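Hey, does this match?
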Amino acid sequence: MQDLLKWRKRTVVVLATLFAVAALFFTSRLSAHQSTSDLDAVWARVQRAGAYHFSADVRQTSTPPATVGNAGRSSKETAMHMEGAADPDAESLHLTMWTSGGSVQDPASGAEVRRDR
């Protein structure tokens, strides 16, 4: 009788774990698909708009691979601010990017990229 109860408990735990993993997998796939379709919609609006200005704050997290050589290393976060203008019809782009130590009030403290046809 005790063995039957232990077997049932284990079965319930295993099934619940499998269900949770499956739910997480399908939920993450659906949200990734939703994010992709949102991004596609934004990109379509940008292309219809023609020339535009932009401003963005970006945070990038770099996580070292889980290897013995990386034991004890932690993730590194880089923050940057970008501003610029793009004109797809004229094939031009002007982008200025600031990382730590730069200031938007001092354009010379940022890295500037300019592409004109």
